[in-house]
Amino acid sequence: MTEHPRSFSSDDHGKSEPNAERVEAAWKHYLAARERAETKSRHHGWHRRRTCLARFLRSLHWQEGVMNARDPYGIEAAFSGCTIPIPFHVEKLERLGVPPDALAGPTLVRVSHVHFNGDIFDFADDHPIVEGEPVFVFLVTDLWGEPIDLIAWNPATGRTATWLRRAFALGEAKIHAPRLSEHGELRVHRTVLGWLRARQEGICIIRPEVAAIRLECAGSLLAEDEAHGEELDQILTRPRPRILVTSSRCYKKAS
After folding, report:
1. How far apart, in whole angstroms, are the C-alpha atoms of residue 110 and residue 136?
2. Which of 101, 103, 186, 197 could disulfide-link 33, Cβ–Cβ 3.0 to 4.6 Å?
3. Contact 95, 13 (CB under 8 A)
4. Quick check: 214 and 172 in contact, CB under 8 A?
5. Lowest-pLDDT range, 37-46, 61-70, 195-204?
6. From CA 58, how far away is CA 69, in angstroms rounded?
7. Sequence spans of domains, the chain
8. What is the average pLDDT score of the chain?
9. Per-residue pLDDT tens over the stretch 225-244
10. What CA–CA distance (Å, rounded) separates 201 from 179?
11. What beta strand segments (E) does the chain contain?
């Protein structure tokens, strides 16, 4: 996909020009962290990556010339078509308090342009007439590392959306992973920026309407503050269904 990375400067009005040495330092920090993450990933999953291309080619399904993106390798292919972050993006987020190594994983990050449509998005390349919004794109995987969806985030507006409505949170692979803390709690962040500032620790809910179902067996949750805890309590409280009982003539509400 053809990208114009520097269009992320839309929210830089009134700020000083970035320092070249700081940009270079942030970029080196990011590259070192990404190399460590890739080395660890190769060590634990070399066989899957070696056969990824072959499996992807076998799994392609074409319908009216369009690839079935719901296949895990279709999702991974769409993500690979996005642009790898450049020093400008790393320094941009560092000025917002995000450490450079937060972009190196475990959730992979790239850059693209998209069109938001409610809680979903389309890549701008699919609609070349209208210019899309610059976003960071996150590859969301399940507990076993299989791609399930993409999440787009515009740091200028805070807007987020999923590509396929499969994912509900950033970092959701950690929900059922072992936890070594005293209470075994899962940290929940209010915003994507907060999640990145914490180096992707815990999760950030993107689709609160399905969070109650997805977090039903997640155990203890750690909120950012008391107000955030009340927000989570409201999100995770599901309404009781209306119960009817049969009678000889009609349905009546159970007492």
Report:
1. 6
2. 101
3. no
4. yes
5. 61-70
6. 14
7. 1-165, 168-239
8. 78
9. 999 999 999 999 888 888 88
10. 12
11. 62-63, 66-67, 109-117, 120-123, 133-141, 147-153, 160-162, 169-170, 186-189, 203-205, 221-222, 244-245, 252-253
